[in-house]
Amino acid sequence: MDDDLPSPASLRPHLRGLAPPPADAAPVAQGAALAASFATSHAGVIAFLTVATEGSFAKAGDRLGIGRSAVSRSVQKLEAQLDARLFLRTTRRTALTREGELFYENCRPGVERIVQALEDMRELRRGPPRGHLRIGASVGFGRRLVAPLLAGFQAAHPEISIELGLDDGPVDFSAADRVDLWFREGRLEDSRVIAQRLVSLPVRLCASPAYADRHGLPQGLDDLARHRGVGWRQASGRVAEWEFQVGGQLQRWPPVSTLTFNDPDLVLQAVLDGQGLAQLPGYQACEALRSRRLVDCLPQHAPADRGLWVCYLSRRQLPARIRVFIDHMAERIRALDLACEPPGAQPVAA
Question: Backbone phi, then psi, for 195, in 5-degree steps?
């Protein structure tokens, strides 16, 4: 169950009637019918949403400050009004029926709009955005781009506190300790999530000039087998494969790794030290490529741009603190030069 819905108790005065009157009814009759429908259904809707949120009638009663039996009666009246069973109840669990799931999904947008309106009004009274933000990012991107920009944001918004967690594992927005938003490389394919593209993300196979002097550079993908690689072990435990575009098709290539790290900055340092080749994202490699401390290998086979994205739950209302943070970070990150091509540079000969 989704435990992130706002407290239904705060929505009692605002829920819409579930049975609107016919469009051709007179205004007075429409108002009377709406009031009657609202009066008979709003307590049941509140109880229903709370049970769906909490996962049990007892917990819903605790949250609403009423007894379990009162919650059950309200839901039963709503089920009778709708002529549909909304919950499957056993001694061990309470689950939504298919009709209950449909009713929940239909109610949720209206609930979120109401809560957003309430939050907006509270923020108008409170003044500048304030509160706590939990931000997530991959280790490399978070360390190199997100963390350095936090001081500027807090200087502009001193009443917002921030917690930044770095993790290369998969994003789990359903976890109890979910973050408010997540920066990630590549779009997250999840219908619950809004993904806003910030900037392009070039990825390049890199080597140091010292490595090129000693070992040469690969002239084609077939040359990779004879070159030393620096591997990055992902949170899943697998060493990341290199990706290349060949004839418009994506090919994955397992590196021949003589060194492997689970920290992206250690991978970069090993490449700078001439220990081998590694495929690096633009935010890691662009500065070193521009200063010619790194060499771009096989640029003709560079993979397609994956993009850098900021993601947040589509079902969650966005308080002002989240909106201003997204705007601030988007502006600052887009102002950075993450291009991987050194101006006027020529490839280093093998």
Answer: -120, 115
Does the residue 330 lie in any domain?
yes
Q: Which tokens sit at 144? A: 């190199």
Residue type, 266: L
Residue 329 falls within a domain, yes or no?
yes
Stronger pLDDT, 320 or 96, i.e. the higher one: 96
Q: Are residues 211 and 273 located together in one domain of the fold? A: yes
- Which is it for the CA torsion 332, 179, 241, 234, positive or negative? positive
Do 187 and 226 share a structural domain? Answer: no
**Alpha carbon distances (Å) from 97 to 46, 58, 76, 88, 306:** 17, 19, 14, 6, 39
Same domain, residue pair 148 and 102: no
How far apart are the C-alpha atoms of 101 and 108, rounded to whole Å? 11
Spatial separation of the C-alpha atoms in residues 339 and 69, rounded to whole Å = 63
Give the model confidence (pLDDT) of 117-149 as tens digits: 776 676 666 668 888 899 999 998 999 999 999
Buried b (16+ CB within 10 A) or exposed e, 214-240: ebebbeeeeebeebbbbbbbeeeeebb
| pLDDT of res. 347 | 41
Write down the pTM of the prediction.
0.60
Q: Which residues are CB-neighbours of 122 under 8 A, at least 6 positions away?
A: none
Residue 206's Cβ-side half-sphere holds a number of Cα atoms within 13 Å equal to: 30
pLDDT tens string 200-244: 888 999 999 999 999 999 999 999 999 999 999 988 889 999 999
What's the domain range around 80? 8-108
CA distance 278 to 284: 11
C-alpha count within 13 angstroms, C-beta hemisphere, residue 262: 9
**Residue 208 and residue 194 share a domain:** no
Distance CA 134, CA 179 (A): 5
- 41 and 95 share one domain: yes
Q: Angle, to 10 degrees, between the axis of helix 98-126 and the axis of helix 27-54?
A: 100
